[in-house]
Design a protein that fits this description.
about 35% strand
Length: about 100
Amino acid sequence: MEIRVQSIKFNADQKLLDFVEKKFSRVEKFYDAVTGIDVALSLLPEHENKNVKVQVSIPGNTIVIERNARTFEDAIVDCADILKEKLVKEKEKRA
């Protein structure tokens, strides 16, 4: 499984990239058919201005989750939690 991170209009530091890798490398525990994860990090003009968009490729489907928060870490944690639930449901559907 490949995790690709794209930071839009800013340069993400290594600490943030490592955090993304750590949070999303665990998704294979919930559904082992995940083929790839694309994470887009961007800044928005409003108050909760950190945006995280996650696209997860699984056979026959793509799951998209998008969250805004005050920090990238908060948005990443929210996305990872929601992704876990969606992958468990998807796995149960296919079982």
